[in-house]
Every structure is written in structure tokens, then in C-alpha cells.
Write a structure and sequence with these properties.
The complex is a heterodimer.
Chain A lengths: L14 H7 L13 H7 L26 H18 L1 E6 L1 E2 L14 E2 L3 E7 L6 E8 L2 E13 H12 L19 E4 L14 E9 L14 E8 L1 E2 L3 E2 L5 E4 L5 E5 L4 H8 L17 H8 L3 H9 L17 E4 H5 L13
Parallel strand pairs in A: 3-11
Antiparallel strand pairs in A: 1-4, 1-7, 2-3, 4-6, 5-6, 6-9, 7-8, 8-9, 12-13
Chain B lengths: L1 H6 L4 E3 L5 E3 L2 E3 L4 H5 L5 H4 L3 E2 L2 E11 L10 E3 L9 E5 L2 E13 L2 H11 L6 E7 L15 E15 L11 E13 L4 E3 L4 E9 L14 E11 L5 E5 L8 E4 L5 E4 L7
Parallel strand pairs in B: 3-5
Antiparallel strand pairs in B: 1-2, 5-8, 6-7, 7-12, 8-11, 9-10, 10-11, 13-14, 14-15, 16-17
Classes of the chains: A alpha+beta, B mainly beta.
């Protein structure tokens, strides 16, 4: 008996509408939502190989009890499950030419454009981590996620990505997702309440293949368990900037993050005060512009030296007080009496 | 508070790839609900936080008995302009303010770069000169421009780096620098009359009067031995008795008060 589906009053979203929801041309298409994409991924050649010969002898460890066929089957089920329930994220491999071998760190890291990967957001009830914490430096978003990625899918997509890198290939070679690499999750990119969500940049803190409760099932591990935490930006170059638009209630919208706006852009601008050839600070450039986009410290300086003062009626006084009148220590070190500008040093 | 922060607002980090990263500084304590707004600031919520970063706060305020002078002592105000009325205030109260400066970085190298931009300047104090009264609430009120030297003394430098533990746990690198500042808390300024003309007069009682019987009402004979005065253009005038030595003219006004006419100073 043939089963006939008969849906009435059901208007699926058209492909055009779906495409318009990806209001982020930099991010590309959505790997998971496109049925065509999904179908393409499962055009796997079915080569069934049974290998039960002498199954009662443990020749190759526990895995010899299971056939490759079963493992492939589980693997493809997991991959399909990730594709159906998962999200498309952008994976950005870390590149750092210089490693500080004294402090064992790599401050000058850049992140190339990367590639899209389908991953399953394992944490379904919200972010892991401590949440939003008030610290001495203001609010911190201590958000963590656990992501799941099919092992062969990573190899397949990443290998394809590597072939596009040409001469840079050696810088970005990966046989698995690496700790320190970035994952951009485009939260709310296709949501109806798009104004409520923000794409977030996560840094991988740990990658394992041993899953809780899924330890060498059928003799194999099938997915990477990726723990990631929101990235702390410290002047690194991200060569991919998701577009973030702020929609106001009056119907207007404003781009606040893209390749020309936001912290990722600001971090790139920090080069500007340095002459590329000599490596010396170019004081002809106004460092106020540089420092204010990233630090905004001049307000404090102004406040200490000549801040606006208001009288009893709330009107600003003409006179701006000068609190600091001299700076002995700066003078002793040969600097101008009161340092108010990076260029003075 | 702002002065303390302004000492550290020009610190930057230099990376090997040529980046100069200015280190933001802000007063740490803040209103929670204002900060919570950032949760929906899309550019803020993209990242956990931006580093490097510095903040500071006042952690203690103690009376400093070593610097206190007697209550009867007054501080005479230095007028901002020549035409200002002279002001005075009671001796200011000395206090020690303890600040903590927090520095958080992602990399150790960044942190040491910041530290090496701070420590050499504190020997162990960094001294600036500040005004007792930076401003008055009313522009019409003249303000005293008296200044004092305010040292910021670096008392301690500590850091913490929790690099051990689980591989995927958070690592925080943080320095804490403790400073002490010696400040004065100045009370209200009072306006006093201006003495434009001050003279020393040598005088003797009128003949036949016993000195012990004299009062402020008594007539005297004497000469002016000199005077100091200022005129409208702020120029001081000094004289001595060899130039001018007018006799004192004693007279009595209609109310019976003794009026001593010394000299008509035309300049005033």
C-alpha cells in the first residue's frame, strides 16, 4: 500500500525566501538547511564489505568483532543526524608565524577565511559555562558550547579547503580540528527575531573523539566532540567578519559589524601607527584615532585635566578646571610636563 | 580618581607583526544594569572580552596623622586673578588613598610589556602637582589656585596566572598593582577682605599721658616708618620713612570715634 502525504494549508518557505534570510553574504549558503545540499552529501558509494572471517579470534583488538560495514552505517547515521539537526558554522584555522618560545605563547595569530562545516550544537538548553559575569573590567560573556562534528566529514571538507590555499597550504594543514582554532556560529542569521541574536566567535579549547556514553561503540569513534569558549580578542587578525545589522524600531537598520565596523575591524587598524619598512611608530599619524577606537582612554585624560563642570542650574561652566598642573616625574624622565597624548612620548 | 587613571592611559603593547595595541583603562566599579545592556550589544557579545585591559579602584581611605597640621592654621588662598578677593581655608585634612590597578592580558608577553611601562616611573613615587580646588560650582566665585604635590607610591606588584588544571579550563593572567596616594581634603574657602595698604607707625603718647593709661581711643604722636600697598594694576608700592613721614593727625568724628588720618594715598 502506497502512503500518500497530503498536506493542506501548509506553505513551506520558498527557496528565494530562504536565500534572503541569509543576510550575510560573507557567510555563504547554509549547508544544513538546503535539502539539495543534504542529498548531495549522502551520495556515498555503497560498497559493502563483510569481514567476518575468523570472527571468534580477537585478531585486531575489539574492532575485529564489528564489520566495517556496520561502522560505516553508524557513521553515516551520525553524519546525517548532524546534518539534519546541526548548524552551519565557519571554521577558521589559526595561523601564527611566530611562537614566543620563552613564554610559550603565540600572540600574533591570524585567522584565515576558513570554511563552512556542519556541526551539531550539543548543548541544547543554553550555553555552557559560567554565563555573564561582572569582573573588574566590565561584563564578560563566559559562554561555552559543545559541538559535534563527524570525523570523515571534517577530513572531506577540510581537504577540499586546503586545495584552495595554494602556497599558504602548509600554514593551515589540519588532520583534525585543532585547539586554538576559531568557530563562528551565526546565531540568529536566519531567525525571524533576527535582531535578538548575534554571531559569536568561539575558540576551540578541547577536541576529543571519546564521547561520554559513546566509547568505541561498534569498535570506532565517529565524531569529534569540540568544546569551545567565546574568543577573547586581543589584537588578533580575523580575516572573516560576519555581517551584523542592528535593526531599529523605526524600521531603519545600521551595520555595526562587518569588514569596516566593529572590533574585528578595529583590531586590524592597529597596524596603522607603525611604518611597515622601519617598524618605527609613525607619529605623523594621529595616534588618538588609533587608540580611541580600541581603548577610548582620552575621556579619562580629559576628565583629569579639563572636564566639563556644571553649575547649580545644570549649565556647563565656561571654565574647565585643570586639576593636574604639573607632572614632576614625567619631567624628570624628559617628557612634557603633563603627558596627554601618545604622540608626546 | 581621574588623575590616577590618567597616569596609565597611554600604555600600549607592541606586537612583533607591527601592531600597537593601546591598553584601555577604566574605573572598575560600575552600575550593573548599565553593564548588562551590553548583552544585547551585538558587537560586544560577539566575543567574551577584549584584552588587554586595565581597571582600577579605590580600596581604602585612611586619615594620615603624620601630615596633619594644627586646626588653627589657615591656608591663604592664592588668587586666580588680581582682582579676586583673598580667600583662606582651614588647614586641609590629609588622607591616604589606596588604589588597586588591575591588568589582565591574554599573553604573558603583553603583560610584561605593560608592567615595564609602569614600574620605572615609580621611584617609588610618581608625583604630580594638583590643585586643592580644581573648580567651583559657580564661575562667578573666584577659586583659589593653591596647589600641592600629590605622590602616587607603588607599594606592591603581584600577579596570578592559573595556567595549571584542566586543559580546557580558563586561564586568566592578571597583575595587581597597589598604590597609595597622599591627598588633602580641603574644607570650604572663606573670603577675607583685601589689605591694600599696610603701614608701620612709630608713635608715642601725647605729653603728660602715661603709657599704661592709653587705650585705642588715646591720642598719639608718631611717624609712619614705611608702607606697603598695591594699586589697581597689582603693582606693589613700598616706601620708607626717609621718603615720606607724615605726622598723624588725630581727630574725632561725630560719633566720638578717634580717626587717625595718616596720609592721603593718591594712588589708591
Amino acid at each position: 500500500m502506497a502512503i500518500t502525504n497530503n498536506y493542506k494549508g501548509f506553505a513551506p518557505v520558498t527557496p528565494t525566501e530562504l536565500a534572503s534570510k541569509d543576510a550575510d553574504p560573507d557567510f555563504g549558503g547554509n549547508l544544513n538547511r538546503s535539502v539539495q545540499e543534504l542529498n548531495k552529501n549522502y551520495a556515498i558509494d555503497a560498497t559493502i564489505t563483510n569481514s567476518y572471517a575468523e570472527g571468534y579470534v580477537n585478531q585486531f583488538g575489539a574492532s575485529s568483532q564489528y564489520s566495517t560495514n556496520e561502522q560505516r552505517f553508524v557513521q553515516s547515521m551520525i553524519q546525517e543526524s548532524i546534518n539534519i539537526n546541526g548548524i552551519t558554522v565557519r571554521y577558521m584555522p589559526r595561523n601564527g608565524l611566530y611562537t614566543d618560545s620563552v613564554w610559550n605563547e603565540r600572540p600574533e595569530s591570524t585567522f584565515d577565511r576558513g570554511l563552512q562545516l556542519p556541526m551539531l550544537l550539543v548543548s541544547t538548553a543554553g550555553f555552557e559555562g559560567e554565563g555573564d559575569i561582572m569582573t573588574q573590567y566590565g561584563i564578560e560573556f563566559r559562554e561555552e558550547v559543545i559541538l559535534s562534528l563527524a570525523i570523515p566529514r571534517f577530513a572531506e571538507l577540510y581537504d577540499a579547503y586546503e586545495t584552495t590555499l595554494d602556497s599558504d597550504r602548509s600554514l593551515y594543514e589540519r588532520s583534525r580540528p585543532l585547539e586554538g582554532d576559531l568557530i563562528v556560529i551565526p546565531f540568529g542569521r536566519t531567525a525571524n527575531n533576527i535582531n535578538q541574536y548575534t554571531p559569536k566567535v568561539f575558540e576551540i579549547t578541547r577536541v576529543t573523539t571519546y564521547q561520554d556514553g559513546a566509547f568505541f561503540q561498534m569498535g570506532d569513534n565517529y565524531q569529534y566532540k569540540i568544546k569551545a569558549r567565546l574568543f577573547e580578542l586581543s589584537g588578533e587578525d580575523l580575516n572573516f567578519t560576519p555581517t551584523v545589522v542592528k535593526h531599529d524600531t523605526d524600521g531603519t537598520s545600521k551595520i555595526i559589524v562587518d569588514s569596516d565596523h566593529g572590533h574585528i575591524y578595529d583590531a586590524k587598524q592597529l597596524y596603522d601607527s607603525i611604518d611597515n619598512d622601519t617598524g618605527i611608530a609613525d607619529i605623523a599619524k594621529d595616534s588618538d584615532t588609533i587608540s580611541d577606537v580600541y581603548a577610548d582612554n582620552h575621556e579619562l585624560e580629559k576628565y583629569s585635566q579639563e572636564h566639563e563642570v556644571y553649575d547649580n542650574k545644570g549649565e556647563a561652566l565656561k571654565e574647565k578646571p585643570k586639576t593636574v598642573v604639573s607632572d614632576y616625574t614625567a619631567r624628570a624622565f624628559g617628557y612634557p610636563s603633563v603627558i596627554s597624548n601618545l604622540d608626546d612620548i | 580618581m581621574a588623575v590616577f587613571g590618567s597616569l596609565f592611559n597611554n600604555i600600549s603593547i607592541r606586537r612583533r607583526d607591527g601592531k600597537v595595541i593601546p591598553v584601555p583603562i577604566a574605573y572598575g566599579p560600575r552600575t550593573k544594569w548599565m553593564e548588562a545592556h551590553k548583552t544585547f550589544d551585538k558587537d560586544e557579545a560577539m566575543f567574551e572580552k577584549l584584552l588587554p585591559r586595565m581597571s582600577y579602584e579605590v580600596v581604602a581611605m585612611n586619615y594620615d596623622q603624620m601630615r596633619k597640621i594644627g586646626n588653627a592654621q589657615k591656608v591663604i588662598g592664592i588668587p586666580g586673578e588680581a582682582t579676586d578677593r583673598t580667600q583662606r581655608m582651614s588647614a586641609p585634612i590629609p588622607y591616604n588613598l589606596d588604589f588597586s590597578l588591575y591588568i589582565q592580558t591574554k599573553n604573558l608577553n603583553d603583560g610584561w610589556q605593560i608592567i615595564e611601562q609602569i614600574l620605572p616611573f615609580f621611584t617609588p613615587s610618581y608625583t604630580v602637582r594638583v590643585r586643592h580646588y580644581p573648580v567651583d560650582f559657580d564661575s562667578d566665585t573666584p577659586i583659589m589656585v593653591n596647589e600641592y604635590d600629590m605622590p602616587f607610591t607603588l607599594l606592591a606588584t603581584t600577579w596570578s596566572d592559573d595556567w595549571t588544571g584542566e586543559v580546557d579550563s580558563r586561564r586568566t593572567i592578571e597583575w595587581v598593582l597597589e598604590f597609595q596616594t597622599k591627598i588633602f581634603m580641603a574644607g570650604p574657602a572663606k573670603t577675607t577682605s583685601v589689605i591694600y595698604d599696610a603701614r608701620a607707625i612709630l608713635s608715642v603718647p601725647t605729653p603728660g599721658t602715661d603709657v599704661s593709661q592709653m587705650s585705642r581711643q588715646s591720642s598719639q604722636f608718631g611717624v609712619e616708618v614705611g608702607y606697603a600697598a598695591i594699586n589697581d594694576s597689582e603693582t606693589s608700592m613700598f616706601e620708607n620713612d626717609s621718603d615720606i613721614s607724615p605726622n598723624i593727625i588725630n581727630t574725632t568724628d561725630s560719633d566720638g570715634n578717634v580717626v587717625k588720618i595718616i596720609r592721603d594715598v593718591e594712588e589708591l
